[in-house]
Design goal:
alpha/beta; four-stranded antiparallel beta sheet; ABC transporter transmembrane region fold; Rossmann fold; 20 helices; about 10% strand
Length: about 600
């Protein structure tokens, strides 16, 4: 009930639709209750008045026709407006779920599969339409119909009505047991569907790797196992449904048989009831047992929708690790100085990634982060746009503690080029403009020129209007990287973070991009992460990390002459590349 009450808060915007549907629903119930009375009256006239009653019978039959037409109109109004309200609810919940996912910090996504989150956003929310447009209206209409029919049955014949109650304890007990059994089964089924969606999504994203490593058969078997696992779970739930529904019908059929037997005795032997009353009683009896048996299906629909709603609310109830604190203020236009004060960080408790990191980057200067893989270089860069908060210590920009400013105003002033470039399905122009949608076409093309991307873009079939496919699949790695750099150039942010920005380009292209980046970095605070140490020599300061700690900090020449970690990494790299002469030049 708590989940259902919570859902009702989200339908307030569509109350007019649901009110119209409810009024039509009440009219349908009233018309259904009145129809058997008209039929009873017609049959009574046939039995008592014979041919003389024909004109009256005609008028009553026409009234019955109008009643059925009015009921059809009310059914249209009820179904249409309940669907309008239901699908509006689905759209609202999908939007709310997606919006909330965008607010969650990156830590939330570390152990989540995209397909699972898509399943909750798309499929679980779709079940809410069935709840609002079908299950709840059916529950209301059947409850009202049951109440009305019960009153009419007792008014028609008290003794016969009491016989109709014989099967009721068995029906109620069956419905309750069915509800208890079916909900856990349906929840497991929806979880299994989420796992199947996640697996298919992962495999389609990694189709190149599957093919190059010839793992088609293995992945097909995994998808097949997951698909049949979902089917087995669904069939287990449907088995319960297949058992309970026929059982309900048997019980209601037994009740009808008792009424027919007892009614026939009242007419033929006891002479206390007329035949038309028995006909009306039987018509009402179908309406009496119908709502009770329908409750089994309604319960199933409600349980399915509530199981999906619970999975959606699990997402909505997840609090982001990184969010605007109460009283957070907008970050004003910054110069770009960055300061780390005794920063500690761990993705998991007890496994520190950064320990006591302190350094300052003056506004408009560049800092290169170097060190072996896994020492925390990217983590340091991720703390600047506040993708994560430090476990201890502070990160400041222009003296502002990042936890005290609004996230949006912080991130608008940071440009980012990642090692793993992500491009959206769309045109080249749309991807370059993504970070600065208000930029002009000339500004966009200038950014592409600076990133050494304009030449290959013009060679594409549609130039800047070329569709590049999902994740830029139609482009090479170097081309994707240059588009990402153009996107960062166009953003014109005071702080620029380059995480392996030239990792996917050849040496010649790298030299061109480095020249462009050098122009871009002028007057901006730049954080550079690169394994190719040749790309960090021009940085104003170099910070060397080892085991999550700072071991060296200084200029390229100073660190090279010092003979520490940076020097070892630098000499090893150039020795492997066969350019030891470069080392001697650098030392001199």
């Amino acid at each position: 009930m708590r989940t259902l009450r919570r859902l009702l808060r989200y339908v307030r915007q569509d109350w007019p639709c649901f009110i119209a549907a409810t009024v039509a629903l009440l009219a349908i119930v009233g018309l259904n209750l009145y129809a058997p009375l008209l039929i009873r009256r017609i049959l009574g006239l046939v039995r008592t008045d014979g041919p003389q009653a024909w004109p009256t019978i005609g008028r009553l039959a026409f009234s019955l026709l109008l009643l059925y037409a009015a009921r059809a109109l009310c059914q249209f109004v009820n179904r249409y407006f309940s669907h309008v309200g239901g699908w509006n609810l689905v759209a609202r919940m999908r939007s709310l779920t997606y919006d909330h996912l965008q607010k969650l910090s990156l830590r939330f996504f570390h152990d989540k599969q995209t397909g699972q989150l898509m399943s909750r956003t798309i499929y679980d929310t779709a079940n809410l339409e069935n709840l609002s447009a079908h299950a709840i209206p059916d529950l209301i209409s059947n409850a009202l119909l049951l109440l009305g029919v019960t009153i009419l049955l007792f008014r028609l014949n008290l003794r016969l009505a009491l016989y109709t109650l014989i099967p009721m304890p068995f029906l109620v007990a069956g419905v309750v047991r069915f509800a208890v059994k079916i909900r856990p089964a349906l929840r497991r089924v929806q979880a299994t569907l989420g796992e199947l969606n996640a697996l298919v999504q992962d495999n389609l994203s990694g189709i190149k790797e599957i093919q190059v490593f010839t793992q088609e058969e293995r992945e097909s078997e995994r998808v097949r196992a997951s698909a049949y696992g979902y089917t087995r779970g669904l069939l287990a739930a449907l088995k319960k449904t297949a058992f309970y529904h026929p059982a309900f019908e048997v019980v209601t059929a037994l009740g009808s048989l008792i009424v027919v037997w007892r009614g026939a005795r009242l007419i033929l032997i006891e002479k206390t009831m007329d035949p038309e009353t028995l006909v009306a009683f039987l018509l009402y009896l179908g309406m009496f047992y119908g709502p009770v048996t329908t409750l089994g299906r309604v319960v199933e629909d409600v349980q399915t929708a509530l199981a999906g709603a619970e999975r959606v609310f699990e997402v909505l109830d997840t609090e982001p690790d990184v969010k605007d604190l109460p009283g957070a203020r907008p970050l004003p236009k910054i110069r770009g100085s960055i300061e780390f004060e005794h920063v500690y960080f761990a993705y998991q408790p007890g496994h520190p990634v950064l320990e006591d990191i302190s350094f300052t980057v003056p506004a408009g200067t560049s800092l290169a982060l170097v060190g072996p893989t896994g020492v925390g270089k990217t983590t340091i860069a991720s703390l600047i746009p506040r993708f994560y908060d430090p476990t201890a210590g502070r990160v400041l920009i222009d003296g502002h503690d990042l936890r005290e400013v609004k996230l949006a105003t912080l991130r608008r002033q940071i440009g980012l080029v990642l090692q793993d470039v992500f491009l959206f399905h769309g045109t080249v122009a749309e991807n370059i403009l993504y970070g600065a949608p208000g930029a002009t076409e000339a500004e966009m093309k200038r950014a592409a020129e600076l990133a050494r991307a304009d030449e290959f873009i013009r060679a594409l079939p549609e130039g800047y209007d070329t569709i590049i496919g999902e994740r830029g699949v139609k482009l090479s790695g170097g081309q994707r990287q240059r588009l990402a750099i153009a996107r960062a150039i166009l953003r014109t942010a005071p702080i620029l973070i380059l995480d392996e920005a030239t990792s996917a380009v050849d040496a010649e292209t790298e030299a061109e991009i480095q020249a462009a980046l050098h122009q871009l970095m002028v007057g901006r605070t730049t954080i550079i992460i690169a394994h190719r140490l040749s790309t960090v020599r021009a940085a104003d300061r170099i910070l060397a990390l080892e085991n999550g700690r700072i071991v060296e900090f200084g200029k390229h020449e100073e660190l090279l002459a010092r003979g520490g970690l940076y020097s070892r990494l630098y000499r090893r790299q150039f020795r492997e590349e066969g350019t030891e002469g470069e080392i001697k030049k650098a030392v001199r």
